[in-house]
């Protein structure tokens, strides 16, 4: 039997589109992405944002949070072509990477 050991602070209803494994990470991913963007990055309107590891949970969320925060151009970096699809599903626009010669 499981019991809830937290108070009411930090609780939120889980959207029906998310399963428990994804939802359980939100309390750590959202504050991390917010702190990276606003405290460390100190984003200002029109800033360009480069997100490394853009296919990861925090990277995907950073890409989504940067535009409403005023970012001009947002670029995400992933390690393989297979991860482009994951990043593209979360981000608004996809542009193929240029190949090195």
Layout of secondary structure:
Elements: H1 20-23, H2 26-40, E1 49-51, H3 57-66, E2 74-76, H4 81-90
Parallel strand pairs: 1-2
Helix pairs in contact: 2-3
Structural description of this entry:
- This protein has helices spanning 20-23, 26-40, 57-66, 81-90; strands at 49-51, 74-76.
- It has 101 residues and is mainly alpha-helical.
- The radius of gyration is 16 Å and the shape is globular.
- The mean pLDDT is 79.
Low-confidence residue ranges: none
The termini sit apart by 59 Å
Helix content estimate: 25-40%
The biggest beta sheet, please?
A: 2 strands, parallel
**Gross geometry:** globular
Return the string of H and E elements: HHEHEH
Q: C-alpha Rg, in Å?
A: 16 Å
What keywords describe this structure?
101 residues; 4 helices; globular; single chain; mainly alpha; two-stranded parallel ribbon; 2 strands
Describe what is shown at a glance.
This protein is mainly alpha-helical. It is 39% helix and 6% strand. The chain contains four helices and two strands.
